[in-house]
Design goal:
Structural class: alpha+beta
EC number: 5.2.1.8
Strand content: 5-15%
Largest sheet: 4 strands, antiparallel
Strand order of the largest sheet: 2-1-4-3
Radius of gyration: 26 Å
Organism: Lyngbya confervoides BDU141951
Protein name: peptidylprolyl isomerase
GO molecular function, one term: peptidyl-prolyl cis-trans isomerase activity
Shape: extended
Distance between the termini: 50 Å
Number of strands: 4
Keywords: Isomerase, Rotamase, Signal
Length: 261
Amino acid sequence: MLQLKDPRPLDQLPDQWHAGNWELPEVTGDQILASLSRQGKMADWVAQAERSLLIHHICQVLEIEVSESELQRAGDAFRRSHGLESTVKTQAWLTQHQMSLEDWAASLYENLLTQKLQVALFGSSVDQHYLNHRHDYDRVALSQILVQEQALAEALRHQLVQDASAFCQLALEHSMRSDRFQTGGYLGVHYLKTLQPEVHDAIQQGQTGEILGPFHINHRYSLIKIEKKFPTHLSPDLRTEILENLLEEWLVELKNSKLKN
């Protein structure tokens, strides 16, 4: 049976540990694959490999290519953004990440290829997609009180209707979240589209400072306070995010359609 014991201090380890006559074992490719399998990460790794091969194949069919000058510019930009001004620093970074120069170039090439595919397939669709789904990209800062009992949630809501400023204190006293002592119920900033439909709709119609709920979610009751709303605009970063999302959705649909046939 597994027993809990305090770890042995370094000065109490066997003499062989201090003798310096042992080495870290070399990790083989088979051992890496076995470790990924044991940790349940093999499926993700295979999915990434399949995605990479699929993107390369589609780009080949569509005759989408990356030129040497584009690859060089991407490499220079990467080095600047990561503070790798010298070849020594760049080589140290490659060593740290266990990559060869060829591996790094292949990674840059694939990123550029993916970006070109995104633009080729969906570049003309971004504006319309944004107009149709703009509220999904609105962000909101939220706080939450999460309790087990509906009666308690209703009682807390009644208190908060009288004094919304008591939200933080009530979260510290009642919320089930493990981080409640540090955050006072603050959940951070979230995209509206990531929230559950009932919460999404209530927040979309609500106002800053408003207390919403209780919502019955996963056998618990949640009170939500809208701390701040962040209406969005179609910035370059958001345009990039939309392109990425559209491509990923399309790749999933493409793969599923092939599996059905």
